[in-house]
TrEMBL record:
GO MF, one example: transferase activity
Keyword annotations: Transferase
Name the record gives this protein: N-acetyltransferase
InterPro entries per UniProt: Hexapep (IPR001451), Trans_hexapeptide_repeat (IPR050179), Trimer_LpxA-like_sf (IPR011004)
Highest taxon above the source species: Bacteria
Coiled-coil stretches noted in the UniProt entry, renumbered to this chain: none
PANTHER family noted in UniProt: ACETYLTRANSFERASE, ACYL-[ACYL-CARRIER-PROTEIN]--UDP-N-ACETYLGLUCOSAMINE O-ACYLTRANSFERASE
Pfam families named in the record: Hexapep_2 (PF14602)
Source organism phylogeny: Bacteria, Bacillati, Actinomycetota, Actinomycetes, Jiangellales
Amino acid sequence: MDARIDASADVDARAAVGDRTTVWHLAQIREDADVGADCVIGRGAYIGPGVRVGAACKIQNYALVYEPAVLEDGVFVGPAAVLTNDLYPRAVNPDGTLKSADDWRPVGVTVREGASIGARAVCIAPVVVGRWATVAAGAVVTGDVPDYALVAGVPARRLRWVGRAGVPLEADGDGAWRCPVTGERFAETDGGQAVVPVAAAEAG
């Protein structure tokens, strides 16, 4: 089954859009972008040149995903969130000439499997948002986010651990945590700076 692309959307002929993906009104997908199957690209969203978007992602209205961002499968990007690509932005060079594409090197944000970026959050490249992590609405992410972390604030700081359901984990004794929705259990590692599913911890 082909993608569903609204007539008002601007999808470059060199972009790839996967089966069953919906691209809504006024969205723009630039050249060489690769959007996977079963995605939803919201109204007015922007996907930059060469951006990679995995399967089953939701990029909500007016979110801006600048190249060379990489979004793995199952990523959520909330309304008006921004994934930047220029650590030291300037419109002009030191001599006053207008910058061109050759005058800077873009750096990207990587969002790992299942992670969520809240509404109006800003991720300052280059950062990595870990697997199944959650960035709260309005947060400004200036450093890497661990797997399963919930971060919030300006700059963003870890507040809790979350599971695959997005719900905060509950303490389960002796450095263990449990998801109240799925029942999945997690163990702390790295001196409490990370958590991993119990099965993964036992295997490692």
